[in-house]
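The freezer alarm interrupted the setup, so I double-checked each line after restarting. Inputs confirmed:
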Amino acid sequence: MSQAAVHRLLSGVRCLRKTPQMFGTNPLFAAQQRWLTFNVQDEKDFKDRVLENDKPVLVDFTASWCGPCKILGPRLETIVAGYKGRVELAKVDIDEHQDLAIKFGISSVPTVIGMVKGEKKSQFVGVTEDDLIEAFIEKLLPPS
Amino acid sequence: MPPVAFSGDLKEWVQNTINCHKVMVFSKTTCPFCAKVKELLQSLKVEYYALELDQISNGSDVQQQLLELSGQRTVPNVFINGKHLGGCDATIQANTEGRLLKMINGEEEEYDYDLVVIGGGSGGLACSKAAADLGKRVAVLDFVKPSPQGTTWGLGGTCVNVGCIPKKLMHQAALLGHSLEDAKNYGWQLQEETAKHNWEKMKDSVQDHIGSLNWGYRVQLRDKTVQYLNAYGTFVDQHKIKATNKRGKVTEVTSANFVIATGGRPRIPDIPGAKEFGISSDDLFSLPYCPGKTLVIGASYVALECAGFLAGLGLDVTLMVRSILLRGFDQQMAEKIGDYMENHGVKFLRQYVPLKVERLQEGTPGLLKVTAKPTSGAESDSITGEYNTVLFAVGRDACTENIGLDNIGVRYNTKNGKLFATNEQTNISNVYAIGDVLDEKPELTPVAIQAGKLLAERLFNGSTKQVDYTNVATTVFTPLEYGCIGLAEEDAIAQFGQDNLEVYHTNFQPLEYTVAHREENVCYGKLICLKTDNQRVIGFHVLGPNAGEITQGYALAMKLGATKDDFDNTIGIHPTCSEVFTTLSVTKSSGGDVKAAGC
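Predicted 3D structure, all chains:
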């Protein structure tokens, strides 16, 4: 694996859409899985990895046609990676998973929802400053 | 004759009278239809109360109240269990369909919805949202069958996905190219002598905008609590449709009322290779690669607009036309549009029809060979040409096949599949139609929207307002835009006779063209006035930049019956193109010169 590829993984900028299963077999990927950014595949996947997740999850509702989403997405990934697995990031493409987005009352993208134990705790809409995103995450974390 | 005895508000009294009687008939002793309804009720051994409005002195006041309550002024006016049924026909029909006794006995079938709209285009969405605003239970079915090339799209119908929106944006892309040329004359120093256009970038930007619109429509439906079904609807009976989703799962949906708003799709001629290798406007706006050297076949506004913007983007474009341009539009204007396009890089193959399309090379784009023959010639006179892309724009067919119309007996024009309707109501009383599926009605998004909104108001809010289909303004977004309202000159002549008309016209030169050294005498405006009606303007035509923006306001003037005098009494805005309509003085009959002069 090239240096660049490793760097991409460590910075959390990656796409799991095509082959999520490879992460279970590759030891490097498996190690990274603890602070995973993942694309939601379907409603069951959403239930398994978001609603039933023990850790807080940021759900990033995003769309391929949305310019601001392309700015916010990578920044969210970097910030979440900094929490080293204490919080996860789930990306939901609102066109591929329209029912989910509609159910969650999404009107504009990007909308980020903070979920804790299957419950919506908070949300923000639009490109937001890094420190505000960090504050948003802090509020989702269990008291230490 | 005594008035009805009541105290207080007449409306309240009428409402109470309706509520107090299981079967209430507002009637007149002299009315044969009223007699018919009463006979029917008697034959069914149904107890009813009839109020004879001609036997009371304030009968016409009661009728006025009935109009407000039910949207119906005429008698008989029948209410059952407080619900408005209608007149004689509605009562007899309800009986024929076995609904009348059920309604009287309170066993009226409960439908899933008050309104189901088939088709999520501009008209269908407008209608469904308006009905939901009135508190009705509404569902919209939207399902896009892939084009022969496999193109599909999201919610919103033709205009948003494969019509007005992408074409206007791509028209704008072409205009910007032209503006870059002008810019040099205005002092802009461009880095490269000739700017290059990137199709993929344009396509992505346009499609991104469309994606956001699709989503916006979906959100609106949720916010207005309109149920959205991404499924194909087929009538099973008058109150039931079968909805098939993309996985083939079938559900049945029942409704008191239906609106057919399925729109139309491009027609692909039945010649070898057309479906396999050709594309249509369904495919063009999301084509992943630049179409390259393109043959556009057809003379419709779609054909001219597409040929126009493709040429404007710098592509080698040929337009193959069977006979006249823009059938149905003013032919003088159509010819001027053609001339302008021909002078701006579009090659014309006039009086030719395609025979076959063959693929010489695969690719993105590939290479196709088209064989065509003269319209009135033999196949032996045929010609061939090689193109990267062949775009068919020969017309559109209504999407009324395979939606089960014959299962319920909706009448339609067998020539074009379009539905017959009066005030958007088909021959089946609870089945309505709006938009491009309607026979003899303009195929325009705003027309469909207006029809959908007003229909919902009439169905669920007692409104009596109908769509005014006259003097609908429209614009063809050819490189030089063409806006029109009212009659084409030839239609005006056919309707009123040449002698009764005066046509005022002129060329004009947009100020912006002068510094840019663009050609003179291409822009043109004319007003067709009816001499026998105080020179009322019955036709408005403008060819020039921003014709759409110019035309809209004048549509209001024409709705209000503006005369030539009114136009003359209006003071223009200087310097604009639109101001020429306030100073038109040369008549066609005078034969005077209309070449543009300075300001």
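Quick read of the result. Residues 67-82 of chain A form the longest helix (16 residues).
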